[in-house]
Amino acid sequence: MGDDSEWMKLPTDEKVQHKVWKARLAGYEEACKLFSSITDEKSPEFNKYAGLMKKFVTDTNAFAQEKGLDAVMAFIENANVAGRVCQDVLQGVITKCFNSSKQKTKEKAMEVFMLYIEAEKQDIVQECLLAGLDNKQPKIVITTVQTITLALRNFGNKIMPIKPLVPKLPKLLEDRDKTVREESKTLIIEIYRWIKQAIKPQMTNFNPIQVAELEAEFEKVGNEKPQQQRFLRSQQDLKAKMEEQAAAGGGTANEGEEEVEDEVDAYELLQAVDILAMLPKDFYDKIEAKKWQERKEALEALEKLASNPKLEGGDYGQLVRALQKVISKDTNVMLVALGGKCMAGIANGLRKKFTPYAVSTVQCVLEKFKEKKQMVVVALRECIDAAFPCITLDSVLEDIVAALENKNPSIKAETASFLARCFAKSSMSTLPKKLLKSFCTSLIKTVADTAPEVRDASFLALGTAMKVVSEKHIMPFLVDVDNLKMQKIKEACDTAVLLNMKGEPRAGQTASKPANNEPKPVQRPATAAPSAAKAPGSRPSTAPSGKSKSGGPPRKAPAKGKGAKKGPAGANKEEVTEPLLSDEAVDEKAEALFTADILKQLSSSNWKERLEGTQKMTDIVKGKSKEELKTQVVVRTLAKKPGIKDNNFQVLKLKVDLLAYLGKNTVFTKVSAGFVLSDLVDKVGDVKNGSGVQEALSCIAESCSLEFVGKEVITMAFEQKNPKNQSEAINWLTNAIKEFGLKVNVKLLIENIKKSFAHTNPAVRSAGISLCGVIYMYMGQNFRVMFDSEKPALLKELDAEIEKVKGEKPPAPTRGLASGGGDADDDEDEVDADDKDDDKIDDSLPRTDISEMITQDLVNEMADKNWKIRKAALEKLETILKESPFVAPNLGLLPEALKLRLNDNNKILIATTLGICSSLGTKLGPHCKAHIRIIGPALIGCFGDSKPNLRASAVSALNVWMENSNLVPLVEQETLSDALKLENPNLRQELLGWLSEKLPSHKPLPSEFKLCIPHLLTCLEDRNGDVRKKAQDAVVPFMIHTGYESVFRACSKLKPASKDQIMAIIEKAKANLPAKPAKTKKGASAKAAAAPVSMDDMDDEPKAAPSRPLSTASSEGGAEGKTETKTRTVRGKAKAAPAPSKKKKTEEDTSPPMNLTVPKERRFKDEKSLKILKWNFLQLTGEYVEQLTLQMEKNFSKGMMDMMFNVDFKQHIKAIEILIKSLETLPDETIGNLDLILKWFTVRFLDTNPSMLNKALEYLRLVLSMLVEMDYSLHEYEASSFIPYLIIKVGDAKDNVRKDVRGIIKILYKLYPVSKMFTFLMDGIKSKNAKQRMECIEELGNLIEAYGISVCQPSPNVAVKNIAGQIGDRDNGVRNAALNAAVQAYMDVGENQFYKLTGNLNDKDQSLLDERIKRSLKNKPAPKAKEEERPKTAAPAQPQRSASQSQIQRPATALPKSASSSSMKKTYLTTFEFEKTEMEMPKLNQFDLDELFKPVEMPKINRARDPSPMTRVSPADASATIGVVIAQITSTDILTCIQALAQIDELLKDEERAHLLGGHVDQLMLHISMQFRMTLSTHMNNDDVPKEEVVRLYRCLLGTLLALTQNPFLATKTSKDILKDLFNSLITILLDQRLSLLHDGPQVVRSVNVMIVKIMEKSDYTNSLCALIKSLQECVSSEACSPKFLELIMKCIWKMIKMVPEIINDLAVDRILLETHLFLRNFPTSTWKNRTSDLPLRTIKTVIHTLAMLKGSKILGQLNLIDASENSEVKMFLQKSLKKDPNSRNEMNGSSDDTDSVKSHQKPKKLNKSTHDMLAEIFKKIGSKENTIEGLNNLYDFKKKHPEADLDPFLKMSSQYFQNYIERGLKNIEREREGRAPSQSEPTGYGMTERMTKPTPAPTSAEELDINFYMNKLRTIRANCGLENADPSKQENMSKKEDMPEKVEKENREMEEEICVKPVLSSSENRDNNQTASSGSKSTDVSELKMRLERIKRLAKS
Question: Which of 1350-1359, 1825-1834, 1858-1867 has the highest mean pLDDT?
């Protein structure tokens, strides 16, 4: 198209790809406008251009490129698919735009990066930019650094993380280009702006001069805080907020807080060091050596490693234990100190990762503080201080208290000092009163110690604690300290310096008086509350709630949920808090509220004035509204001396009444209560005002909760010595419990109750007993058990009190929280009737954790084979339970152990176990729910025992468990239906009778309960009369929960004979249905009416909640709201009613549900390197879930994580629904997190909820279908972590689940190689689940049917034998599946081979199998069809097939069995896209050989080939099909292998589809290599296999290899290990002497020879060289390796060494040096003296030397992969090589570093475009065998015309042999034109034809041209027929004898043409062959040639 008008008519998408740059420029402009005009970001128009974006930015024309960048920017801004091409576009921008000479182009290129960051692709942007920093072009590096700087300036360090940049900075600052260095400095300054001082530790590696310059620049930056300039698309709200703040000039209120949050820790920028891998190998041996010198050596080595500031996480358990042993037990104090330093270094380097070892370390160090050596003590201090950030004081409380009580003064002194340092880093929240009290109690004892150092340390600890929590809060614990000691404590408080966790002094500690800040809590309580503490600046700013929890004077008990559990009001009410006001603030506010006279009167010594002042104060308070009154001010004013301790009863009465008023009518907080409770307790026993005080306490309890006030009152009462106060305090609590309900923590009360029992005063004892009686009404016998250890006399009194209240119900509460209102009280009345209250009351009991007593040894004894040992173990367990009145829910392995014993063969042990279960149920209480799923089914199993006493015990035990649990868990896991399914009459009658009792009063059950209906109907017909009777009794209870309709529908499915009788029973029960529930408690009539309706609805509408039938009934019934509410309450449905009130008000999470923060490749790498647990478990443990949580929280939003890891299955369903939506909105993120999602679903597979499971399977089906459409292949780690657990679910009890799983498995065949799926299914056969075995075997049979026996893994022999072994299974379904699968194998391999595979079967199984085979053969189609489907040998009826027909035979026979099998299932027919299901063998087309005589069409042979099945496979099925085809390559059947190779060849020919092999190259190469070895070891040794077949197989394999290596995309994808295996196989073939004896054996050897060189030239050079070096190492280490094999390996390496100068820039030198290092490490130079030859060593050194000469001194920087490279021989040899020839080194170094500059002096003049195109056309002709002579003549003329032309670029891409060939051809042409004859030994043509004919001068006539052409053609046909060197006279006979169809056109045409034009390791045979061929063709003429071709034509037509 030379005219512009032509390309202007083209559409835009064609313009942008046009050859003319003007057309492209116009296209880019149009595209830019088009992109900007499209409003829909998901428009399909964008998809059309997505793949072209990279071409836009890499345009060769500068003007067009600039417009292309504009279009790309518009594309990124408007297209949703822009992210898919992000990496390609950015890489193109870096390589083609960053080095542009136009500044505008570079600016636009940088803007492309910024736009991609805005589009949330910052991870890919940073990855590409970091790669750009390694570019060799300074221009690119400069622009890359500028782009990074700009991105950091615009987006900040949160979006553009700085950590990945840090390792690159030293290299950039040392760059030889000045501009690079300057831009790098600018980047560092920008980094400093964002992270300030955190960058400075990284500058230690910089040049000192540069550091000084940077420091100067840092000072100019100042402390200004940078702001984000540009924002991500998800940050638009933040952008708008910042714009508003900027416009308003505000936004600085929280600046300080943000600054703290944004601060970057320098530790995070450091590179972690994995010291575990660097430990000396003998470290653990030396650390325990007897000689202290060896132990010291080990510790010194560790100290050096531990000094690294940041350590890589890992399992440090063994190392820490070793160090702890040194610290605690080593006798050498120097080593103890060294061990402490090492431990401190590890703790500092690991930080929070040291947490698992911190507590044990503290314990160890505390014990060792007894050492007196200062050196040891200092080291131990460092160690324990380093461990402190990883612990809480609560975790080491007991150890510290024990250390403070130790007799050794050193231990006490150092422990107190440690406490002081801990307190200095604590806050009020981390040092609560509970801990403070314990520590103070111990420290008060040590302040009186005789040792001065102990006293000083104790004073310091107490003083520091006082400064942290304030004097007021600590003084209650220091009441026994005398004034002198108190003075010292206060002095220590004044001098103490509080620190943050970094060890730096906290801000604001210099302020001496907090008076200025104290009023702030009143003005700004939400933010400034913490400032009012007594110790200003002693703790960071916290929320007021946090202050009230840890701060204020009152002692606050931890919330137990007692107030929140009762009704909505209690659940919603939040605790009111207020800040603690200073004394000055209180005085100021009191003066404002009351007059000065009143305040003066209150403090007067005259009681009348005090009375008057109190009266006035009361009047003022009552005259104020609730909002106006500050209760704390009034209370604290009232409490001032004399306060509540007033001696005048009249004044006291007014004050107490005022407090009662305040408690009822104002906001009375715990802060206020703390000021008066102590004084009120002092007056609670007052004769005149005691009752008023008790009322005041009750009023305060209404505001602050009874739990808080009751605990404080009882504790304070028993701290006094006045028995009157103690007894009255207990009496008040007794009455309060009756009024409020049991809203106290019983655990805390028991201790004080026992104190009252032991009191000498009878009134106190009596009050305690009365309190016990009231509590007994609420808790029952459980409470009485706690006092079994008391004296009998006391117990008698206690039992008498209990007898009084026995049978009484606890009174309804009459008082509660003041704000609760009447409704709340009503709700509480109803909820009290529910089991939830009892659960929470029982939970307050003190429980014993017996999990530690349930040891593994005890469990093993319980499972011992000896019944006596089992009995003894059960007795031990009984003893443990007797000693524990109440048991904690953590039982460890006990439930599973008990479950096994309930199935014991010994009836005595079963009875014992039932007694234990009954006792355990009582002691667990409400915690039975956690274990009912395990114990319940086992107990129900005991219902079927033959002994009545055991059945009765089982029923009794299950009743105990049901008292604290319910049937829901048993129904959900289908325990009841499975039990009724068993035909055990004892089990059925006991279970049905038990259910008849439980069901009527039970809450509604899930829909799974309907599964019991068919079994109930079966029981109605049972032969046992008792079973029938029990079943009839159970019909009505069942119908209460399932509804009549469900039972009726189940009856309709019965047989007619049974239906009438059972329907009569059902109808009779229906008549009784309404009456039955009316007799039950709590409005069961409502339940009876509602339940059937809701359960029926669930059948039709699955979305209805299965466990909430009431909600359905109420919503459909149309009843009024009040009626619904009452119904729920009466029925005890406490779960449904308060649910809305329990929802927490959290901020809505608007972030996307998942992202790609951490790529899955990194997780695969971690799993491969064993840094994380492999997802492979038999039983899911907490560590797997924890690991999955940690991995997912990085890539999933918080809201999503909360749903996915919630205990509620409904949240799981919500999460799955979001995942389903994400399939459309976030497909890339879904694929990027696929491994995590699949792992999460494996966890969900363990859940039993059917709704969630169905939803999960639906999602899996959708996501896998999406992956199929995207042509995705599952990664190995994704598959192995998911498929085994999916296969477990194929054995699920529910039919619909199994059906869904089967469908998912069918989809997986398209995503994962079927051969590997076969392996997983084989593992599934090992399961104990019969359904799983059956399903797996059925799938295996389907696979064998579809893909043939070759799909069996690990081998057909193993697979078929395992399948046949299942024929004898007990389960009928498994037997049938095994028989069917075995028949499929029989059909595939035939009788003889099949019985070899199955091995010996027993007579019964063999007869079953024979019978099934006979039956199958009767139903099988005619055997002729089978022969046509899979011919195992060449068809005998076609001996006269022509050569051309033989060439097309290969694809025709390559149809897979799956395409032609008439018995193939429909599910597998979808795998291939055939038009018809009945396939026939395609007829071979007849070719007109006349075309061979047409000179014009010389180059081509028309090949009309039937397309192979591979070409007809749809893209969605390609991956799975390719895996199957490749697996068939290793088939023992040669024909099957050749068919598979034919399909691969067909795929390789199609350039568009060849890329599908990209992910299978390693697999293909490995299978080819395996087939080489199999052929060599099996077929060559088998006399039954024709050797022609073997040669044919070799040629097919080599042909496929050749086609693969000719594809540049695929050839370089082979990995090192696969190449090593392939080289070994090929060289082994070269050495096989048997091959040379075969007819075409020598030619195969030559082909293999050439193929080895071809692989070295075409595959990845680094992988090839590394593979050869690895092979050489294995050869040297193997004694069995032959010298010839070793020699050929070395020759291959020598060949690679010759290629190194040309490919040096493509080599990964560091990897090659690593391989040489491994060789020299295993075989050092010193070991070669005793060897016969050191040629391998010299070969390796030659490799190193060559690399050193080419890379120069920079090669020393390539040793980074070698551990401890300083000691490596490689480094020493490199240094030696570089020193020997420095001049040569420098020269080489220059050529490698700047190749372009050197070559510019060596190259001739550069060609212009037209000349370059002309030369390209000439070389194209030379490369074509038809025009090679013409091409050589044109090249000769071109060189004459353009002597200055440079041909190197064209020759460099070809092999050395091709270059030699061109050189020889040009010399021959020169001789011909000079009149001389060309050299007879040199060929003039290209390809096999020219090599086998005599070289002649250029043809002078048409006849000579025809002679050459026809001779060449005939030679090709003869070669394909195996007649390459035969005598012409024997040709006809040979052609008749040869089996023509066995030749494959693809292999022979391409392989034989190319095989001899490449260099070989030994070419002597080639030259001889050429000469023979040339001499044999001299007498050929045209007529004879035509006669031969005529005969071939007749043969073809016959």
Answer: 1350-1359
Read off the pLDDT of residues 380-431 as tens digits, 9 standing for 90 and up.
988 988 888 888 888 888 889 899 888 898 999 999 999 888 988 888 888 8
Burial 479-494 (b: 16+ CB within 10 A, else e): eebeeebbebbbebbe
The answer, yes or no, to whether residue 1809 has pLDDT greater than 50, is yes
Cα dihedral 759/762/765/769 (nearest 10): 170
> What SS3 state is found at 761?
coil
CA 1427 – CA 1314 distance, rounded (Å): 25
pLDDT for res 1635: 81
**pLDDT value at position 683?**
83
Find the mean pLDDT for residues 280-301: 87
How far apart, in whole angstroms, are the C-alpha atoms of residue 855 and residue 845? 25
Nearest in space to 382 (alpha carbons), one of 355, 414, 411, 425: 414
Question: What pLDDT is attached to residue 1742?
Answer: 92
Measured CA angle at 1122 (ends 1121, 1125), to 5 deg: 90
Which segments of 1529-1613 are extended strands (E)? Answer: none
Q: Is 1154 helix (H, G, I), strand (E, B) or coil?
A: strand
Distance CA 1527, CA 1540 (A): 9
Residue 120 sits at the vertex; the CA angle it makes with 118 and 124, to the nearest 5 degrees, is 110
Can you give the pLDDT at residue 1238?
92
- Tell me what percent of the chain is helix, strand and coil, each rounded to the nearest 5: 70, 0, 30
Cis omega before residue 642 (within 30°)? yes
SS3 for 1060? Answer: helix
Per DSSP, what are the bridge partners of residue 505? 499
Which CA distances in Å does 1948 have to 1344, 1636, 1952? 32, 19, 5
Model confidence over 1586-1616: pLDDT tens digits? 888 888 888 899 999 888 888 888 888 888 8
Asked whether the beta carbons of 868 and 874 are under 8 A apart, the reply is no
| Phi and psi, residue 1566, nearest 5° | -65, -45
Which residues 6+ apart lie within 8 Å of 752 measured at CB?
A: 714, 715, 718
Residue with tokens 């009322």: 695
Contact 113, 93 (CB under 8 A): yes
Helices within 649-780 (DSSP H only): 649-665, 670-673, 677-683, 690-704, 706-719, 723-740, 746-757, 762-779
Q: DSSP characters for 950-1000?
A: HHHHHHHHHHHHHHTS-SHHHHHTTHHHHHHHS--HHHHHHHHHHHHHHTT
Closest CA to 64 of 17, 2, 98, 103: 17
Number of H-type helices and E-type strands within the chain: 113, 0
pLDDT in tens, 1925-1984: 444 433 433 333 333 333 334 434 433 333 333 333 333 334 343 443 344 433 344 556
d(CA 1955, CA 1966) in angstroms, rounded, equals 11
- Per the rule left: phi > 0, alpha: psi between -120 and 50, beta: everything else, 595 is beta
Residue holding tokens 């319980």?
Answer: 862
* Nearest one of 1270, 1283, 1253 to 1175, comparing CA atoms: 1283
Write the DSSP assignment of 1195-1221 as a string of letters.
TB-HHHHHHHT-SSHHHHHHHHHHHHH
* Whole-angstrom distance, CA of residue 1933 vs CA of residue 768: 121
CA–CA dist 1620, 1617 (Å, integer): 5
Written as six digits, the tokens of 1712 are 């090659």
Per DSSP, 1755 falls in state G
Angle (nearest 5°) at CA 932 between 930 and 938: 145
Cβ proximity of 287 and 295 under 8 Å: yes
Pick left, alpha or beta for residue 251 (phi over 0 → left; psi -120 to 50 → alpha; otherwise beta): left
CB-CB neighbours of 971 under 10 Å? 24
Q: How far is CA 1317 from CA 665, 1306, 1323, 1354, 1629, in A?
A: 73, 10, 10, 11, 33
The per-residue pLDDT for range 939-956, each reduced to its tens digit, is 888 988 888 888 899 998
Q: Indicate whether this model's pTM tops 0.85.
A: no
